[in-house]
Design goal:
binds guanosine-5'-triphosphate, four-stranded mixed sheet, 10 strands, 46% helix, alpha/beta, binds magnesium ion, six-stranded mixed sheet
């Protein structure tokens, strides 16, 4: 290898998914992938950088255009076999007929290993055999990758039979479905195509794994932080005798919900950029619970609340009227205000509204009459927030960067959508961790309850790890 870090050129027939493979392997969604054959016309190098260090390079190349004619030239070449590519390039550099072949051989001529990509959903043809023979004659370490574009047609066995004669290693790698573990397995296979690369590729794999663990730690921190913020959130507003209690309560509740939605949205955004989804919005499948509003009954139902829990939650779905300050200055007593606001406000539990101290926790006088929403009183709220975060995380980590077209999942009957809550399957011990955490976050003694907070963060990280072991 001529460069200090490993370099692999991704070669193949036009439109077989070479660019998609490069995109998924390098986690770069800016690689141009297109249904039109001939999209890639010049080589482009994509370097994987971890913590500011270049780790490995993949070169996206144009597809073979004239493999039979190229093979015919290769078969007439009888000089130094190590120079076959240099000689081919020198002989055809200014011949437009061989322009793509000259271009795609360049990275290999300078020492890159070969990853040959084929579409396993179609049969092997004559051109493919010519391409494979060319690659064999280059003498470079090479691996064949079967990237099947359609699950219903499978010619993998035929491809494997042909590959056996031409390649040092064969792998199935689906650019539209591969996850982190598939990428690691791919690197493991590359190790085996040339002994010389073993130690350096072992270091690459280590760097990938360390980076993945770091992302899990960060994702867990983002999630825990957002949940804590959401549960603790309070909003308040001033009221006076002329205010309509129902309206006042509802506008405050909407502000409260909106702020929590925003906290969730920015946490999703943090996770998305952590996993390097930059260009494309990761669209969620239609059946996903995340298609429903955080505060809708549907969300809580899908996430596994039982009928009784739902009934008990009642209007608490949307937040709790946490406390009311009442100086009776405007002639409407606390009892009256909460009673009217509560009863007319869809049966909410505001009747139990606490009277907050006339000093806010920060010691600032609140002055005047105020109503306050939050912190959230319903322990189920924690599970809802956690479930949604875990579901989003799973969508993101199972979304390969090379995938472009969306799966079209339409018309999923609501009744057939199964409950999606991950937390309903938590063991009793894990639920205890959540319950303790909820209590700690809601109360004022957060600092003293740091063990509860720590235990919860550890739990979230384990859940993230478990999700990355599964396929979506
Ligand atoms: N379903 C499915 N489609 C894929 C897969 N890989 C690639 N495609 C699609 O196949 C088309 C071609 O993919 P590209 O990655 O652009 O192919 P290429 O080999 O780079 O093509 P050229 O640059 O034209 O030589 C695109 O529409 C991709 O979205 C796959 O694993 N599954
Ligand atoms: Mg391409």
């Amino acid at each position: 290898m001529s460069t200090d870090i490993p370099e692999f050129a991704v070669l193949g027939h036009p439109n077989e998914g070479k660019s998609a493979v490069v995109s998924t392997l390098t986690e770069d969604d800016q690689v141009r992938v297109s249904p039109v054959p001939g999209e890639t016309t010049v080589c482009r190098t994509y370097t994987v950088t971890i913590d500011g260090r270049d780790i490995i390079r993949f070169v996206d190349t144009p597809g073979f255009q004239v493999p039979r004619q190229t093979l015919a030239w290769f078969n007439t070449y009888h000089k130094d076999p190590h120079r076959i590519l240099d000689e081919f390039i020198a002989a055809h550099e200014s011949d437009p007929f061989y322009a793509d072949e000259v271009e795609l051989f360049c990275p290999v001529a300078r020492g890159a290993g070969i990853i040959y990509v084929v579409n396993g959903s179609r049969p092997v043809r004559g051109d493919d055999l010519a391409e494979m023979e060319i690659l064999r004659l280059t003498g470079r370490p090479r691996m064949a990758v079967i990237n099947s574009k359609h699950a219903d047609k499978d010619y993998t066995r035929d491809w494997r039979r042909e590959f056996g004669k031409h390649f040092n290693s064969i792998r199935i790698f689906n650019a539209n479905a591969a996850n982190f573990h598939d990428r690691i397995s791919m690197l493991e296979s590359l190790k085996s195509i040339d002994q010389e690369w073993e130690p350096v590729l072992a270091r690459v794999i280590q760097a990938f794994q360390a980076e993945w663990e770091k992302r899990q730690r960060l994702a867990s921190a983002y999630i825990t932080h957002a949940i804590e913020k959401s549960i603790r959130l309070t909003v308040s507003r001033g009221i006076d005798g002329g205010d309509d209690p129902v309206l006042a309560r509802e506008t405050l509740a909407e502000t409260y919900r909106e702020q929590i939605r925003d906290i969730e949205k920015s946490m999703f955004q943090q996770i998305r950029s952590l996993f390097k989804h930059r260009v494309y919005e990761v669209s969620l499948p239609e059946y996903s619970v995340l298609q429903h509003d955080l505060f809708s009954r549907k969300t809580w139902e899908l996430l596994g609340l039982t009928k009784t829990q739902l009934a008990a939650a009642g209007a608490l779905l949307g937040g709790t009227m946490g406390a009311v300050v009442d100086t009776a200055a405007h002639g409407l007593s606390l009892g009256m205000f909460t009673a009217i606001g509560g009863i007319l406000g869809a049966g909410s539990a505001v009747l139990g509204g606490r009277r907050i101290a006339d000093k806010s926790p920060a010691g600032i006088r609140l002055g005047g009459d105020r109503i306050q929403m939050g912190p959230h009183e319903n322990p189920q709220f924690l599970y809802i927030l956690l479930d949604r975060a875990l579901i989003y995380y799973a969508h993101i980590i199972h979304r390969p960067h090379g995938r472009r077209e969306q799966k079209n999942i339409t018309d999923v009957n609501d009744d057939t959508v199964k409950k999606q809550g991950i937390t309903t399957r938590l063991t009793p011990a894990r639920r205890k961790v959540c319950a303790r955490y909820f209590k700690a976050v809601k109360g004022r003694r957060l600092v003293r309850d740091k063990n509860a907070v720590l235990a919860f963060a550890v739990l979230v990280q384990s859940l993230l790890e478990e999700l990355s072991q599964t396929s979506e």
